[in-house]
Write a structure and sequence with these properties.
The termini are far apart. The protein has two domains: about 130 residues, no CATH class; about 290 residues, Methylamine Dehydrogenase, Chain H. It has two helices and 29 strands. By secondary structure, the chain is mainly beta.
């Protein structure tokens, strides 16, 4: 026992030596790990806050008005979230790389304006002649029927003066509607003397020069022929929608040959609304499917679809019907692209409105896609396509003067891409997102 007493001291010294070698590094590692944990925690808080910034920007592009403020590639918007995230301010920058948008979205405000008649410009109807040359038929001074030609270029810029003028009816020229027949021959349907429905053919050359007299005339309704709208069907067959006896809505088919001579009598007829059919506007949808926009019962704006065969025979029933606004005075409808159509009309408070809707080739009518208020006083508006994505609207505005405005419509939609940067503390997240018809897809996401 006594012999073993001296062995304890060397063992204690060895244990102390080993402890000094192990404990110091362990304590140093433990301190570094605690510091790293705090740094890691801060990084997680910053990244989480920056993530929230990216998500806010994506939501604003899809559901808010942020995309509307970034209408052109290169447009940029910087803002800060109203509230802190994890105690951090979040700063966001969104840049438009490529703008697409939703089909039917009205993308531009008014581009240009021309006052084509400084006295009276009632019930204008407009058509493209060729290139930058356009014609406007309207009821002017003395309620006579006038036809004028103007220029509108591919960017929506309107010439400062008219090219030529014809007074096509010196007695009465209410609610005229002009269409192209063939070559230099054009037809104007309108309500003339005695409120009867008239159809006249005239000539307009490619320079905008108008012939001095009508080619032929047909009184297509000897009782009442209010607000006629005429459209080409097939061969020498044309269809006219109008408000007739009892304010009912009527549809008739007629014959016009290539030289402008008009057949008599009408081919076929359909009463598409036996209650109210004010200011009908007729357009081809696809094949033998046609749409009529008009003001119906209760002053509501209606769209109906019908069938017209190539030989002029009209099916006896309406395919589909929908209301686009109430009230919906003097509607005019055109095709934008595919199933997308645009309607311009005088709506609530007599303001001018432009709306987009979808109509399938089978005649099924969809809901309103988008809307734009054009002016605070817009009577008898009419719309035509100038180029892809740009339309021109003629109407009677303040002081009963005649105006033309140009605006943009996103015809087909497509994907828009944006780069989003969100910074919180010392962390930056950079993301690229694609938005196509309201659906967001993350293309890339990088933490910096």
């Amino acid at each position: 026992m006594n012999e073993q007493r001296g062995q304890a001291l060397p063992l204690a010294i060895i244990a102390l030596a080993i402890g000094s070698l192990v404990v110091a590094p362990f304590l140093g590692y433990a301190g570094t790990d605690l510091i790293g944990s705090r740094v890691y925690g801060e990084a997680i808080k910053e990244q989480s806050a920056a993530d929230a910034g990216i998500e806010h920007a994506v939501w604003s592009l899809v559901n808010g008005d942020l995309a509307g403020q970034l209408s052109q590639p290169g447009d940029e918007m910087t803002y800060q979230l109203d509230e802190t995230i994890n105690g951090l301010n979040v700063n966001i920058t969104v840049t438009a790389n490529a703008t697409g948008g939703t089909a039917g979205e009205i993308t531009d405000t008014v581009i240009d304006t021309l006052e084509f008649d400084t006295a009276n410009g009632y019930e204008p109807s407009m058509i493209n002649i060729t290139g930058d040359i356009y014609a406007i038929a309207y009821r002017g001074p003395g309620s006579d029927g006038f036809l004028k030609t103007i220029t509108i270029d591919g960017e929506g810029e309107i010439g400062n003066s008219t090219i030529d003028t014809l007074e096509f009816d010196g007695s009465a020229g209410y609610e005229p509607f002009v269409i192209h027949i063939t070559g230099d021959v054009y037809a104007i349907a309108y309500r003339g003397p005695g409120n009867d429905g008239f159809l006249k053919t005239v000539t307009i050359n490619t320079n905008g020069g108008i012939g001095n007299s009508a080619i032929d005339t047909l009184e297509f309704d000897g009782s009442e022929g209010y607000e006629p709208s005429i459209i080409y069907v097939s061969g020498n067959v044309y269809a006219i929608a109008y408000r007739g006896a009892g304010n009912d809505g009527f549809l008739k088919t007629v014959y016009i040959d290539a030289d402008g001579h008009i057949g008599n009598p009408a081919i076929d007829m359909l009463e598409f609304d036996n209650s109210n059919g004010y200011a009908p506007f007729l357009i081809n949808v696809a094949g033998d499917t046609y749409a009529i926009a008009y003001r119906g019962t209760g002053a509501a704006g209606f769209t109906k679809t019908v069938t017209i065969a190539d030989d002029g025979n009209i099916a006896g029933a309406v395919i589909d019907s929908a209301t686009f606004d109430s009230p919906g005075y003097e509607p005019c409808i055109i095709n934008v692209s595919g199933d997308m159509f645009a309607i311009v009309y005088r709506g609530p408070d007599n303001d001018g409105f432009l709306e987009t809707i979808s109509i399938t080739s089978d005649g099924d009518i969809g809901a309103v896609a988008d809307a734009l208020q054009l002016d605070t006083s817009s009577y008898d508006p009419v719309i035509i396509s100038v180029t892809d994505g740009i339309c021109a609207i003629a109407y009677r505005g303040p002081g009963s003067d005649g105006f033309v405005k140009t605006a943009g419509i996103n015809a087909t939609g497509g994907a828009a891409t944006y780069e989003i940067q969100a910074a919180a503390g010392g962390t930056m997240i950079r993301a690229v997102v694609s938005i196509d018809n309201g659906v967001a897809t993350i293309i890339s996401w990088q933490v910096e």
